[in-house]
Amino acid sequence: MKNIYVVAAVIRDGNRIFATQRGYGPYEGWWEFPGGKIENGETSQQALRREILEELDTEVQVGSLIDHVQYTYPEFHLEMDCFWCTVTKGDLRLKEAEDARWLTKEDLFSVKWLPADLEILDKIAKALSL
After folding, report:
1. What is the pTM of this model?
2. I want to staple 47 with a disulfide (CB 3.0 to 4.6 A). Which of 11, 35, 42, 99 is the partner?
3. Which domains are delineated in the chain?
4. Residue 14 contacts by C-beta under 8 Å, 6 or more apart in sequence?
5. What percentage of residues in the chain have a pLDDT greater than 90?
6. Nearest to 33 by CA among 6, 4, 10
7. Residues 6 or more apart whose Cβ sits within 8 Å of residue 97
């Protein structure tokens, strides 16, 4: 089985987090935290800054690691580093995603999350309560 290593940005603005909806592939319509694959020679943080700039035309400050998620999909095994991020420049313009929403703790579970992203929602909900 193929292993895929990715990074995900949990972009926070006060008590809200930013989520995007996939517009392609077998998980079209599902929600996720933006990010992508780590390229050779990149750290997780470098990859995340590059991916957010490419996908959302926005620069972010990468903060602390929330969790390292491992999830086995039918087609591959995913390893994902999820980081807190804040916007430093730009306005989160969708270049690849179908849709996006700012979610609060109360509506965090109102969208259909990709299974790997679902793994960290409880930790995010607890942090949004602080």
Report:
1. 0.95
2. 42
3. 2-128 (3.90.79.10)
4. none
5. 96
6. 10
7. 20, 21, 22, 23, 34, 55
